[in-house]
């Protein structure tokens, strides 16, 4: 049972990293677009 919980924890950790990476990517893209619009 402990091993099962560990597997879930590892899966969630990997999932969280993936989500964080996607969010960071979106944020970077937004920042670039924002700068392109408002900086001259």
TrEMBL record:
Superkingdom classification of source: Eukaryota
Protein name: 22043_t:CDS:1
Protein source organism: Cetraspora pellucida
């Amino acid at each position: 049972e402990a091993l099962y919980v560990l597997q879930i924890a590892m899966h969630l950790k990997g999932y969280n990293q993936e989500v964080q990476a996607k969010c960071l990517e979106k944020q970077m893209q937004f920042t670039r677009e924002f700068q392109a619009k408002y900086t001259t």
